[in-house]
Write a structure and sequence with these properties.
By secondary structure, the protein is mainly alpha-helical. The chain has a domain of about 55 residues.
């Protein structure tokens, strides 16, 4: 793993949030700084995944609009029911 240069930044937060961070840090035997670093890292990772999911949805919608290929709810539901029963079945074919 490579070394990452750390840089300082400043944010303004309400005193009530600062107090809550301090209580969590004390309970977990961590510094408030570490709690805030972890919180920011986890937030960024979650939001990156959420954005990737959103972009996948946009790409799928654009592809559907361009190609018109789809699977009906009934076909998908029947396929999922078979999978739920333990059957190893191929997914339904897309159609226009």
């Amino acid at each position: 793993m490579g070394t990452t240069a750390l840089q300082s930044t400043t944010i303004k937060i309400a005193q009530s949030i600062k107090d809550r961070v301090k209580r969590l840090a004390d309970a977990r035997h961590r510094t408030p700084h570490r709690v805030m670093q972890d919180a920011i890292r986890e937030y960024v990772e979650r939001e990156e995944k959420r954005e990737a999911f959103r972009q996948d949805g946009i790409r799928a919608w654009n592809e559907y609009q361009a190609m018109g290929l789809h699977v009906t709810h009934e076909s998908a539901d029947a396929w999922l029911a078979k999978l739920g029963e333990g059957q190893d079945v191929e997914p339904p074919a897309c159609h226009v």
